[in-house]
Design a protein that fits this description.
Elements: E1 7-10, E2 16-17, E3 33-36, H1 50-53, H2 79-84, E4 94-98, H3 105-116, E5 130-134, H4 139-149, E6 157-160, H5 164-171, E7 179-183, H6 200-217, E8 220-225, H7 238-242, E9 245-250, E10 257-265, E11 273-279, E12 282-285, H8 289-293, E13 321-328, E14 331-343, E15 351-354, H9 358-372, E16 379-385, H10 397-409, E17 417-419, E18 422-423, E19 429-430, H11 435-444, E20 449-452, H12 457-466, E21 469-472, H13 476-482
Parallel strand pairs: 4-8, 4-9, 5-6, 5-7, 7-8, 13-17, 15-16, 17-20, 20-21
Antiparallel strand pairs: 1-2, 1-3, 9-10, 10-11, 11-12, 13-14, 14-16, 18-19
Helix pairs in contact: 9-10, 11-12
């Protein structure tokens, strides 16, 4: 019999190597290869008639239409969580929830399980609605958290186990719970594999077995996944391809706001977000995230700065701030873009970006320098998206440019104005989608003006219907003209070339 040969699998990307090396050739990670013994040799192939000898049978193909045995979506009662999932849980689906340690993954899932499970315990003959299996904590620790959250009276079944064989033996039956939470998948292991829990082979095999029984019995499986220091779920990337939905928790641990984002969803929209606030009673949903992200700014419907100030100063108006009307999935969200432009002390200008793409910031500064005659790129630039939200859509280009020019010219953007639009390398401002939803959200929060690209009459009708006064910006130089300083700015030797600004 041939001797079983060991292999080395990368714990970051899952690539397999015949021998150990210090650096993985697949992803470039150092010291990520761990020796693993293969479970069994793969078959050499299926020859002619081999399927009949193995007892295989033909597949029973069916059409796209027909009766379904699965129940409809089941809602947890947590509106923000149901929104991210696409309207509720789909029976037989597998959901992967990832996030930094201590951000609130276990808290939210315990709240969701308690919301689904009935109160006061189970009656005779009643099927359990939710089960919580923990591999990291003891039963008493989970009970303490349930008492703190105020859900100790719900009939959630608890178990502390990490052996996948025992878990499947308890779930593979007709009266299986409707929702099963596994916290976490990195602690689960199969006794048929020689590798330690948390390795690539264990995570992949354990998830595969749990997903298989969830599909067969029709219950919702929620897997909690650890994340690496780069912010991705630990283990092989194939784990995200095996599940139906991938949710990520975003936000700083020292900040009370948490953002749940759908990165992948086979039953709903991707990039959908749910906003929560961490309190002493757990995670509380925030129904109006736009008002949350704009907290601390002057009232949108207030007069221009200086009218309400007793001394006539520009109180409440700060340069380098612009309100962006964005879209997160199917929801319009208004966030504040903050920028600070300072003279570069060292030879190389510094760039610090929080909540946005640093590469796209470099492109915007290059367009401002080349097409508008500004010297933005020669300064230190600090850009921040308030509230801890991360923006990925290109419609934020115009808002970022408005914040940069406002900081450079020391001219505040009007407090009752929202800005959105995509900037091309030529300096042209291109239209973006979901204009009507953006304008309606801005009007609901008291904004009266919108700086946006208007190319067609229909977009102007949308803005008029929303009750907003629009300003058509076809080129980035028009934005620079609108932010011309009303007074002599402080000494800025790097901003000598100006286009469209009266001397």
């Amino acid at each position: 019999m041939a001797r079983t040969q060991a292999r080395f699998a990368c714990q970051q990307c899952g690539a397999v190597h015949p021998k150990w090396t210090g650096r993985c050739d697949g992803c470039g990670a150092w010291n990520s290869l761990i020796e693993e013994l293969p479970r069994e040799a793969l078959p050499s192939g299926l020859g002619k008639g081999a399927g009949d000898r193995r007892g295989s049978r033909a597949l029973g193909f069916v059409g796209l239409t027909g009766p379904s045995l699965l129940p409809p979506r089941r809602q947890t009662g947590i509106a923000e969580f149901d929104r991210v999932c696409g309207g509720g849980f789909v029976a037989g689906s597998a959901i992967l929830v990832g996030g930094d340690p201590g951000i609130g993954k276990s808290t939210l899932l315990l709240q969701a399980a308690a919301a689904i499970a009935p109160l006061g315990g189970l009656s005779s003959g009643q099927t359990a609605s939710a089960a919580y299996v923990t591999g990291e904590e003891a039963i008493d620790q989970v009970r303490l958290r349930a008492e703190r959250l105020g859900v100790a009276t719900s009939s959630v079944l608890l178990a502390a186990a990490s052996n996948v064989r025992d878990i499947i033996a308890s779930l593979d039956r007709e009266d299986a719970p409707g929702l099963v939470v596994i916290d976490s998948i990195q602690t689960m292991y199969l006794d048929t594999l020689d590798s330690a829990p948390g390795t690539v082979s264990q995570v992949r095999a354990a998830a595969q077995e749990l997903i298989r029984v969830a599909k067969r019995r029709g219950f919702v499986l929620v897997l909690v996944g650890h994340v690496t220091k780069e912010g991705v779920i630990a283990g092989p990337r194939v784990l995200e391809h095996m599940v139906d939905t991938v949710l990520y928790f975003e936000g700083e641990r020292g900040h009370q706001f948490r953002i749940l984002r759908a990165v992948k969803n086979r039953f709903g929209a991707t990039d959908e977000i749910g906003v929560f606030e961490m309190s002493d009673c757990g995670l509380v949903e925030v129904p109006n995230p736009s008002a949350l992200f704009l907290a601390g700014r002057p009232t949108a419907g207030a007069k221009v700065a200086g009218d309400n100030a007793p001394d006539g100063s520009s109180a409440g108006q700060v340069s380098g701030s612009a309100v962006f009307a964005g879209m997160e999935g199917t929801r319009p969200v208004l966030v504040e873009v903050q920028a600070l432009v300072a003279p570069a002390v060292l030879g190389t200008p510094r760039r610090a970006v929080v909540g946005w793409d640093g590469t796209r910031l470099a492109m915007i500064t290059a367009v401002l320098d080349a097409r508008c005659g500004l010297s933005v790129g020669a300064n230190d630039i600090y850009l921040n998206i308030a509230g801890g939200l991360r923006i990925v859509e290109p419609a934020a280009d115009l808002a970022v440019a408005a914040a940069l020019v406002s900081a450079l010219r020391e001219t505040p953007v009007p407090a009752d104005t929202v800005v959105f639009g995509e900037i091309a390398l030529s300096g042209d401002v291109r239209p973006v989608g979901h204009t009507e939803a953006r304008l309606k959200e801005a009007a609901k929060l008291g904004f009266t003006k919108a700086w946006m690209p208007i190319r067609r009459g229909r977009r102007r009708e949308q803005a008029v219907a929303a009750g907003l006064e629009t300003a058509a910006i076809g080129h980035l130089s028009e934005l620079v003209e609108r932010l011309a300083p009303k007074r002599a700015p402080r000494s800025q030797p790097l901003d000598r070339r100006r286009i469209g600004v009266a001397s």
